[in-house]
């Protein structure tokens, strides 16, 4: 492979800078004097006998138990708009057939029921 004089000089300079500024470690040894960010729950040496702060535990329980509707007054994202208001805006009268006409069975469910009937016939 042939290099021009400019590209060869560039590669030589790049290599010299890499050797000067970059250190590659072959072996990693942890710094035991440094405080760890998170402890290992399975390590008997890192477990502490101190009790956790009750305020923090209560906040974690609150975050776990309640959804966005209890935490926020208003939906923050567009995904939260879906299902935010569960009550219908207009009361629904199911006896009025002009406004309430549910589909009792669709073509897909009819087809599925027919397949189930054929499966039960084959098993018997």
TrEMBL record:
Keyword vocabulary terms for this entry: Cell projection, Cytoplasm, Cytoskeleton
Entry keyword annotation includes Cytoplasm: yes
Cellular localization per UniProt: Cell projection, Cilium; Cytoplasm, Cytoskeleton
Keyword Phosphoprotein: no
Pfam families tied to this protein: FAM183 (PF14886)
Cellular component, GO, one term: ciliary base
Family (UniProt): Belongs to the CFAP144 family.
Protein name, UniProt field: Uncharacterized protein
Lineage, opening ranks: Eukaryota, Metazoa, Ecdysozoa, Arthropoda, Hexapoda
